[in-house]
Q: What sequence folds into this?
């Protein structure tokens, strides 16, 4: 089994936020914590692009490198997880992460910073699989159920792919070579099909 | 006599107080720099669902992986 990865196809993402909603619902994420979010570049301008961003489960994760209490670990499938019992909520991982993935629940009158929370690739955490403790701290463990992350599986346009890096890379490659790139991707011809042959020229003198 | 006894009692109390510090256990965790310090995690197939059957788990994940490929789904149907 190769490494688990996410891949978001910016040509397909329609900014529906279905992945964000699926994640929130699946893990019962508290208000103010967003394990996944949709980022749009050039919002409102024709040709705008959106991508869904969460923890990218880096091969050499900078969050793990800077953690002062070494609470991060990587599973055999390449999923970066952490032990919330060790986390001290210092926020170093948030500064180190290029994707802004680590989240900190802020509740209480003085905006207390709680233990870090992030995307688990729906793989739970270091608690007994399917236990209440695991769900409460890390959310559902779909990977142990033989399923892939809810965000990717719920994606209506299949813009967000999640799973074995080799397989989703093949899916994306096949997609790109089939649909073309740049201006070929969208427009009348792509939506309704290109005419196989040009219409015959009208006969001279015929009504147009 | 009574005064001497009081001094002795006070001395013993101070000594006991001083010795009490010697019995204190270290409360600071010693970390091994750069290695994971938390609880061990089980493999995703080591649970009631898959009962340690790694092949069955991989088959399930592979099916889900390929389920994301709509070109493949079109040809199957």
A:
């Amino acid at each position: 089994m190769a490494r688990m990865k996410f891949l978001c196809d910016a040509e397909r993402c329609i900014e529906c936020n279905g992945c964000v909603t699926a994640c929130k619902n699946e893990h019962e994420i508290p208000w103010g914590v967003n394990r996944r979010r949709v980022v749009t570049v050039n919002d409102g301008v024709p040709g705008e692009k959106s991508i869904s961003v969460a923890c990218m489960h880096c091969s050499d994760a900078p969050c793990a490198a800077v953690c002062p209490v070494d609470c991060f670990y990587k599973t055999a499938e390449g999923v970066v997880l952490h032990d919330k019992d060790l986390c001290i909520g210092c926020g170093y991982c948030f500064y180190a992460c290029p994707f802004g993935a680590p989240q900190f629940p802020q509740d209480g009158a003085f905006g207390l910073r709680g233990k870090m929370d992030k995307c688990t690739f729906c793989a739970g955490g270091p608690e007994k699989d399917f236990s209440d403790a695991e769900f409460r701290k890390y959310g559902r463990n779909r990977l142990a159920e033989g399923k892939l992350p809810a965000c990717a599986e719920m994606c209506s346009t299949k813009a967000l792919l999640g799973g074995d890096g080799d397989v989703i890379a093949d899916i994306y490659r096949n997609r790109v070579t089939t649909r073309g790139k740049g201006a070929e991707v969208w427009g009348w011809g792509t939506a309704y099909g290109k005419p196989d042959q040009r219409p015959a020229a009208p006969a001279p003198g015929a009504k147009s | 006599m009574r005064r001497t006894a009081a001094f002795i009692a006070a001395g013993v109390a101070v000594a006991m107080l001083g010795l009490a510090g010697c019995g204190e256990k270290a409360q600071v965790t010693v970390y091994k720099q750069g290695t994971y310090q938390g609880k061990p995690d089980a493999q995703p197939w080591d649970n009631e669902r898959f009962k340690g059957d790694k092949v069955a788990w991989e088959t399930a994940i592979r099916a889900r992986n390929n389920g994301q490929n709509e070109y493949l789904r079109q040809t199957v149907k």
